[in-house]
Structure formats: structure tokens, C-alpha cells
Amino acid sequence: MNLMELLEPTPSGYRSEKEDNTSLKITDTRKLRLTLDRINKLRRMNDTRKLEHELKLEKLSSQYKPAAAAGGGLPPM
Predict the structure, then answer these.
(1) pTM score > 0.70 for this model?
(2) Mean pLDDT, to the nearest integer, of 30-36?
(3) Contact call for residues 41 and 72 (beta carbons, < 8 A)
(4) What is the DSSP letter of 14?
């Protein structure tokens, strides 16, 4: 968790504490019913995760790309 996640409200596509009312007990043996609403929420969460991963890869590739040939340095042998 980042510090900014504590200060800013949660963006859309993330699970919120208000929606998390699934306090299960040990005696609960049934699975939750899979509805279209839940499927759509899972799809949105997956799309958000995928987008964040792609943005992270773009940032990393720009940070670690090879330096431009600016001259200077040692001549090749």
C-alpha cells in the first residue's frame, strides 16, 4: 500500500470497504452465487490491474533504457 492510497479516495475499479460485506464464518460451507454484477466487478478489477501493470512497465522501460550515445567516454578497442 502506498502513502497516497491512504490520503486519496479509492478510484473506480477497486474494491471498497463499503462493498465488502462478506464476513464468512467457519460454518459457512456454501459458495457465493455468481451474478452478472459480480462478474462485471471482477472484469473491471482485472482491467484496472492490467492497465496499472502496463503503466508500470512503461515507467520501468523509460527508467532503464540504454543511454543515448552522447559521445565522450572511452573509445572502443
Answers:
(1) no
(2) 84
(3) no
(4) S
In this structure, are residues 45 and 15 in contact, taking their beta carbons and an 8 Å threshold? yes
Say how far apart CA 37 and CA 13 lie, in whole Å: 13
Q: What is the pLDDT of residue 31?
A: 75
Q: How confident is the model at residue 8 (pLDDT cuts 50, 70, 90)?
A: confident
Angle at 42 between CA 37 and CA 44, to 5 degrees: 95
In order of 51, 59, 61, 68, the CA distances from 65 in angstroms are 21, 10, 6, 9
Q: How far apart are CA 15 and CA 12, in angstroms?
A: 8
Query: Helix %, strand %, coil % for the chain, to 5?
Result: 45, 0, 55
For residues 6 and 36, the answer to whether their CB atoms sit within 8 Å is: no
Q: Which 8-state DSSP code applies to residue 33?
A: P
